[in-house]
């Protein structure tokens, strides 16, 4: 009996994604590492990301922080670390994290399905010629929804779904970080039109477009946003992990 190659041998996520996150967390001096927890010190982190934590869906946790923060928290002295100790040291030093976001991507298998899909319905890419319909769309949404979704007509790519010639759902994207070839997306559907599949279609349409431009679509949402989590799964996205950065209000 010959062993057939396992379908599981295909990497779950593209090299673009895994390389990006490895660069974020491992481009520095690794202070501590075991099977589940890794901490690195990187002097090149931006001020607004001077400490970051990523818990991948397989339960592994990576953390990175600046040398100044490592010194302040005493983490540069410790040989024996764990995630609870790391978080306690941050708290003791007055370093507050913002609160994690879920990060979703298309698996390689789902990406292949998406690229072969012909998306149907009244949806298309939006341009500056759609300023009037987009303005009407925004005026029909709450300030909270607009802030949460961050969907803008002047972003790198914008797609919309229509019902009776009215824009009822829109998604927009912009490149995420420098030279990452990842495009971060936001999506907003007007309340009366939710649950009809509009958001799923615009997410898949804009994601297919991103792939055609050489980018990996990225979908983020807060942990308590169950509607957004459900949409990610309905659109075919897979959870990559939970990502947290230092809070803008941190006292450190």
TrEMBL record:
Record-linked SUPFAM superfamilies: Acyl-CoA N-acyltransferases (Nat)
Gene3D superfamilies the record matches: 3.40.630.30
Short name of one Pfam family: Acetyltransf_1
PROSITE patterns referenced in this protein's UniProt entry, alphabetically: GNAT
Domain N-acetyltransferase residues, every copy: 113-252
Protein name: GNAT family N-acetyltransferase
Organism per entry: Paenibacillus oleatilyticus
């Amino acid at each position: 009996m010959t062993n057939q190659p396992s379908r599981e041998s295909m990497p779950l996520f593209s090299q673009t994604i895994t390389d990006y996150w490895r660069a974020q967390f491992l481009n520095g001096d690794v202070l501590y590492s075991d099977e589940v927890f890794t901490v690195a010190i990187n002097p090149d982190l931006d001020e607004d990301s001077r400490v970051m934590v990523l818990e991948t869906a397989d339960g592994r946790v990576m953390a990175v922080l600046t040398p100044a923060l490592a010194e302040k928290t005493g983490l540069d002295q410790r040989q024996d670390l764990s995630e609870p100790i790391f978080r306690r040291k941050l708290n003791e030093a007055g370093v507050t994290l913002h609160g994690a976001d879920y990060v979703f991507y298309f698996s390689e298998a789902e990406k292949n399905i998406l690229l072969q899909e012909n998306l149907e319905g009244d949806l298309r890419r939006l341009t500056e010629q759609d300023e009037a319909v987009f303005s009407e769309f925004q005026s029909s949404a709450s300030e909270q929804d607009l802030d949460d979704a961050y969907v803008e007509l002047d972003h790198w790519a914008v797609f919309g779904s229509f019902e009776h010639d009215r824009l009822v759902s829109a998604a927009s994207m912009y490149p995420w970080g420098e030279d990452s070839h990842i495009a971060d997306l936001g999506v907003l559907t007007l309340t009366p039109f939710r649950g009809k599949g509009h958001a799923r279609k615009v997410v898949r349409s804009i994601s297919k477009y991103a792939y055609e431009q050489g980018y990996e679509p990225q979908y983020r949402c807060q942990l308590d946003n169950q509607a957004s989590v459900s949409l990610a799964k309905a659109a075919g996205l897979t959870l990559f992990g939970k990502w947290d950065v230092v809070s803008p209000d941190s006292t450190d």
